[in-house]
Specification:
With 374 residues, the chain is of the alpha/beta class. It contains 13 helices and 15 strands. The strands form 2 sheets. Strands 3-4-5-2-6-1-7-8-9 form a 9-stranded mixed β-sheet. Strands 10, 11, 12, 13, 14 and 15 form a 6-stranded antiparallel β-sheet that branches. Helix 4 crosses helix 5.
């Protein structure tokens, strides 16, 4: 069994219809740095890769001139990944060092993320690396405004890649770049013409990788959330005086919350579990660096999926405050802040005797705050 650091990185390439996933894959698979990649696509006929194919080990897997492996996703993703790993171990296909999964244009990438992260049959061998979302420079703005799938694909991305930038006017390109930065302040926004982008810019977005490289600030990007939140607040105030009592704003919002006091491990566990289970659909993404009883702990959640918290060996800087950033739909800052007392709860059970339980009165207040959310 592979250790956590030896798990094969899995990256998801998504984007709305016509965003250029085919072009990007063609360019990536001709790059020497990607010679050890395995690519999972829906059907070979949907992607123009024929000129790269050189052999067919079986009906679902082909070898490519670049040395890459390409297989079709037919049915269950778990079985596809397990079969691919089994072929690798038997020597039926060349060894590969990463996996790229290309989604359809209308796909919700979250179930794929959940499968890779949580399926116990995959977890020992595969680990999520990054979600790369492509956005068409010509049609992207309109798609973000009218297509919920496009907004969600962009909101959960680690990397946002603007494609067809040579076909858009400078003004349109700038408008799209600004819109994406506001929709997902935590993602790096890149541009590419004809899929020409260095693979190193797209991949390597895991928490562990950024922590090892002392780049946690680039992963969290809290200053970007603060900037976007201020801009969104100004725009909202200038657009309308406020919402009537009981009415919620269903737009996607980004914000950053700081906590001066340390939090408890029991409180963090309770808060994450309750928030994800009760309101996961509204939480597109949560990231954080928290002071958990003096230790630096990184948290990451995508809707109902909670990644295992990672305790760092040392603090990345002198700031000991807890920092949480959110991309949420129909859930504003006040909704979240009303639940944060849970983070300071202390377990009423002795250590090691079971699941931590908070004080009953505090838990009742927490549930009441949760029920007020949209």
């Amino acid at each position: 069994m592979l250790t956590s650091t030896d798990r094969l990185p899995v990256s998801i390439i998504t984007g709305f219809l016509g965003s250029g996933k085919t072009t990007l894959l063609n360019r990536l698979l001709q790059d020497p740095a990607m010679a050890g990649a395995a690519v999972i696509i829906n059907e070979f006929g949907e992607i123009g890769l024929d000129h790269l194919l050189i052999a067919t080990p079986n009906e679902n897997t082909v070898l490519m001139a670049s040395g890459c492996i390409c297989c079709t996703l037919r049915g269950d993703l778990v079985n596809t990944l397990r079969d691919l790993d089994a072929q690798r171990r038997k020597g039926e296909v060349p060894a590969f060092d990463r996996v790229l999964i290309e989604t359809t244009g209308l796909a919700d990438p979250v179930p794929i993320v959940q499968t890779v992260v949580t399926d116990e049959r995959l977890a020992p061998y595969y680990g999520l690396d990054s979600v790369v979302t492509l956005v068409d420079a010509v049609n992207g703005l309109a798609q973000l405004d009218t297509q919920p799938e496009s907004r969600k694909q962009a909101a959960i991305a680690d990397r946002l890649l603007i494609t067809k930038s040579d076909l858009a006017t400078p003004a349109a390109l700038q408008a799209l770049t600004t819109q994406l930065a506001e929709l997902n302040p935590g993602a790096q926004v890149l541009t590419a013409t004809q899929g020409d982008v260095a693979p190193a810019l797209l991949f390597g977005a895991t928490i562990a990788a950024t922590a090892r490289k002392a780049q946690l600030a680039d992963w969290l990007r809290e200053n970007e959330y603060v900037r976007v939140e201020a801009k969104q607040s100004q725009a909202k105030q200038s657009r309308r005086p406020g919402l009537p009592a009981g009415q919620h704003d269903d737009s996607v919002q980004s914000y950053c919350i700081h906590l001066d006091d340390p939090v408890t491990a029991a409180g963090l566990t309770s808060w994450l579990m309750a928030l994800a289970s009760l309101h996961g659909a509204s939480l597109l993404r949560v990231k954080g660096l928290l002071n958990v009883e003096g230790n630096p702990v990184v948290v990451h959640a995508v809707q109902t999926l909670i990644h295992e918290p990672l305790t760092l060996e040392r603090w990345p800087d002198d700031d000991r405050r807890s920092r949480l950033v959110f991309i949420a739909r129909g859930m504003n800052r006040a909704d979240i802040e009303a639940t944060l007392d849970v983070l300071r709860w202390k377990s009423t059970m002795p250590a090691g005797t079971g699941t931590p339980k908070p004080d009953p009165e505090a838990y009742a207040r927490f549930l009441a705050a949760m029920e007020k959310m949209h």
